[in-house]
């Protein structure tokens, strides 16, 4: 079980209260699909993903970005039990979708970049560390069913 400090708990809650989840999710997924084009293979039904502009304007990418942020918000509300909260997501991604688990870390890195951009100077090294810890637990929880 992960131990969270009071600062980390407050920081995670604060981050989600300050960001625009719709913008963050869409921008992070767009960035991931652009920077790591091999991740596009999981989104074959999304239509045009041929370049950065097409990806950024794709309504299915935007919609899935909201789904991603909804899952992250669920994790933030279940800090003490993210692994159990993510059981069904882990099963879905491992057994049905067969997503390469390394892609979760790539997406998490893109989420961090976008959140940092939204928070600006408020994204201090201490805030960054708390958010990285949170995303590391999320990634580990998504990978749970793979092993």
From TrEMBL:
**PROSITE patterns, per the entry:** GLOBIN
Gene Ontology CC annotations of this record: blood microparticle; haptoglobin-hemoglobin complex; hemoglobin complex
Q: Name one GO molecular function term.
A: peroxidase activity
User: Which domain of life does this protein belong to?
Assistant: Eukaryota
Please provide the record's keywords in A-Z order: Heme, Iron, Metal-binding, Oxygen transport, Transport
Checking InterPro entries in the record gives: Globin (IPR000971), Globin-like_sf (IPR009050), Globin/Proto (IPR012292), Hemoglobin_b (IPR002337), Hemoglobin_oxygen_transport (IPR050056)
Q: Where is the Globin domain?
A: 3-147
**The keyword Heme is assigned to this record:** yes
Q: Which GO terms describe its biological process?
A: hydrogen peroxide catabolic process
Could you say which protein family the record assigns here? Answer: Belongs to the globin family.
Protein name, entry field: Hemoglobin subunit beta-like
């Amino acid at each position: 079980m992960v131990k969270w400090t009071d600062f980390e708990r407050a920081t995670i809650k604060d981050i989600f209260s300050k960001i625009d989840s719709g913008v963050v999710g869409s921008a992070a997924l767009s960035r991931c699909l652009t920077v790591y084009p091999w991740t596009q293979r999981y989104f074959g039904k999304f239509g045009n993903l041929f370049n950065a502009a097409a990806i950024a304007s794709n309504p299915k990418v935007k919609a899935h970005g909201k789904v991603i942020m909804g899952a992250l918000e669920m994790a933030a509300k279940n800090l003490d039990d993210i692994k159990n909260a993510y059981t069904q997501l882990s099963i879905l991604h491992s057994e049905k979708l067969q997503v390469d688990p390394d892609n979760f870390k790539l997406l998490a890195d893109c989420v961090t970049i976008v959140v940092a951009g939204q928070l600006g100077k408020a994204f201090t090294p201490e805030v960054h560390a708390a958010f990285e810890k949170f995303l590391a637990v999320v990634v580990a929880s998504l990978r749970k069913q793979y092993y």
